[in-house]
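Input (structure):
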């Protein structure tokens, strides 16, 4: 084997732990791989955070992207950014707890692009911490509707289109709370466990029809919600990061990399999987 020449370039090949940003993570993967070349991808909750990073990565990897968010202004901003970089995208506003809205999102994809190859069901809400016995019923219903019913409705329409095509790939976004309890968040824990149940059921039913369904379980990630909680305080960030195996927050693009890979043909034999993307948090 030839010797590897020494380099005087101090720039690290990989991101430095504790100093990651989306830009640094993308710098570690500079080549466009074409993982989604020629595909049409739908991303829900794509106006910010993990959904935004996923929509941008799909576009980078060659997909036309349907950017769906309840906040149309956020969705349009993401679309504009994708288009400015030469990508193809369209914004759609929807309340995914309403079946008519979900049907309209799928129809937009079909009317605009003629097919739907990939979907990442990411939209959801966080919950208010509190005692199990003090959880108001209306908060339970709100959480289940936003984080579980929405995924069911999206799957219902995505599976129909993809099965008719004979091909497609869906990734549902759960959480570490999908496999372990999040004390103080019984409604969130139940919803995220339920997402994994829907994933397994859909995978079993539709694998033979050419549709792969998987789930990712992100760990604590630097999303706007977490940033607002930390509020720029390094001590709070240290506290939040304490339970993460690698010792620091995940970045949205790190989660997006897993979602886009699962949707790609590189993951052609992966179906019914629940993939932890959490920096060695749950396994500890």
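Output (sequence):
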């Amino acid at each position: 084997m030839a010797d590897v020449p020494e380099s005087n370039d101090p720039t690290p090949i990989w991101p430095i732990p504790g100093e990651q940003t989306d830009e640094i993570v993308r710098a570690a993967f500079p080549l466009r791989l074409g993982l989604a070349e020629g595909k049409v991808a739908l991303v829900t909750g794509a106006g910010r955070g993990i959904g935004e990073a996923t929509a941008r990565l799909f576009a980078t990897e060659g997909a036309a992207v349907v950017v769906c968010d309840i906040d149309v202004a956020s969705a349009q901003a993401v679309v504009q950014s994708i288009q400015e970089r030469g990508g193809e995208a369209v914004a759609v506003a929807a309340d995914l707890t309403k079946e008519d809205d979900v049907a309209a999102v799928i129809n937009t994809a079909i009317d605009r692009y003629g097919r739907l190859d990939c979907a990442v069901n990411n939209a959801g809400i966080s919950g208010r911490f509190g005692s199990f016995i003090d959880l108001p019923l209306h908060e339970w219903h709100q959480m289940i509707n936003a984080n579980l019913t929405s995924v069911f409705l999206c799957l219902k329409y995505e599976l129909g289109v993809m099965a008719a095509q004979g091909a497609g790939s869906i990734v549902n976004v759960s959480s570490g709370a999908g496999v372990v309890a999040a004390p103080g968040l019984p409604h969130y824990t139940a919803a995220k466990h339920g997402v994994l149940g829907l994933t397994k059921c859909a995978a079993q039913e539709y694998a033979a029809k050419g549709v792969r369904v998987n789930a990712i379980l992100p760990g604590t990630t630097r999303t706007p919600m977490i940033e607002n909680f930390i509020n720029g305080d390094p001590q709070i960030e240290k506290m939040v990061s304490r339970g993460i195996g690698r010792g620091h927050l995940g970045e949205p693009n790190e989660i997006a990399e897993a979602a886009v890979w699962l949707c790609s043909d590189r993951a052609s034999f992966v179906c019914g999987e629940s993939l932890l993307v959490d920096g060695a948090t749950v396994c500890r």
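Notes: The radius of gyration is 19 Å. DSSP finds nine helices and seven strands in the chain.
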